[in-house]
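Q: What structure does this chain adopt?
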Amino acid sequence: RERGRMEEREGEVRWDGLCSRDASTRDAALENILQAVLRRTAHISPVKEDPPPEFLEGRLASATALDRLNEMLARLLMLSMRCPFRDVREKTLSILSNVQELGIRIPRPLGHGPSRFIPEKEILQVGTEDAQMHTLFADSFATLGRLDNITLVMVFHPQYLGSFLKTQHYLLQMDGPLPLHYRHYIGIMAAARHQCSYLVNLHVNDFLHVGGDPKWLNGLENAPHKLQNLGELNKILAHRPWLITKEHIEQLLKTEEHSWSLAELIHAVVLLTHYHSLASFTFGCGISPEIHCEGGHTFKLPSVSNYCICDITNGNHGVDETHVNPAGSISTTESFCEVEALMEKMKKLQECRDEEEASQEEMATRFEIEKRESMFVCCSEDEESAPTRDVSRHFEDTSYGYKDFSRHGMHVPTFRVQDYSWEDHGYSLVNRLYPDVGQLIDEKFHIAYDLTYNTMAMHKDVDTSMLRRAIWNYIHCMFGIRYDDYDYGEINQLLDRSFKVYIKTVVCTPEKTTKRMYDSFWRQFKHSEKVHVNLLLIEARMQAELLYALRAITHYMT
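A:
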């Protein structure tokens, strides 16, 4: 099947032409795809209700051909709904319609749009975007060959999305120390730490597309020793980054045959931290499987009635479109009071700040208290989280997960930002060894941290900087990272328990995030605001992991 995929890419079917901004190039590619589909359908008999036994025998012989065709049809379905170019959407829809008229079953989408947590009607529909957004979509489609669900959820915040796509494109596709297939394989390794089958599936396809060896996908032990050696760093970075030492770095750089160069290692570390954080976003926003991937479509007929191709354009997926009231049984008045109370606390804290400043000792104590308390914030294990395919074959030691600092008698010293910070140390180290990347990541951190529309739920003209800082510093506090000039007493005032549970789960054990957790914090806030929270979570997490890894590299170098 893998070979079939490769032949398809190398031989008769060229999907790449659809990414072109030139309409005639796209048209030629669509014609080529139509002919390829028609050739494939010629070998396949139409679906019959009660086929005779001899028909079934012949059917088995063409099973591989059907698999190949179905893979193409799933891709066409995705393009008909997710391609930013209207001509491609219309033509792929008409190809699917032709196939259905031949009596061959076509796929239909499963689920309700890009996110399991956010109603589809609240997410920007492809084809309804304005000119600025269209450019962003077209750029994304041109570089990735798809407009993925992550992009469609991030688009609530276009300024951030632009920066995110530019950084990711640079890491995966532009000149850099690592070969292309290594980059996607490292992405798979990182996403697999959190059993994030969504990202694993995407990068398995990308890995094969750039010529990666399918054997490596049978497990890390089938990959080159050089990548196997990265397994330990991947594991510690994902779950307990405070344990990284210069010895870990030395082992990678000094292994005789399979050693990494410093530049390659920086590239790998940035990729690992990028994909650990992106796994957090994927689970934190309930990202659905891509339409053309496993779990994103089905060839089964819906039980409701016969499914017609026109249902796709009408957004009728043949499934009951009910969405539970996000606030559950909480009354609007109650959650309205929640917003008012939070704004009142922010006002009071601002007044206290102006009046008195706590001593250094008091500030240090408050940090230690918050760090200790963050250990006892945990989610209930038995909740229903997203179903995941078993991707553990891509990494070893599945028992190794997030552990709190001083449980099991383990104590981790506090990491003082005053001694090693991203701005003064990490940024220049990355930029020196992997030019321009430090700059791109730095921009992305700043956009996420500074992003504001000066609104809170239904209120306008609100200064939210205090709240944004509390979220960012709480995440760093969970990783032992301390800012001397911050009063950690503010965190307990601003972040309630359900919000802390959500933050800790998304950042430390994202695979355990549930819709109930997403719904239960900030009940009156908009979905765009909850997505904004996720941008803060993933950037703060990425920076925390980078600080520990880069500090260890700096110690090794000095």
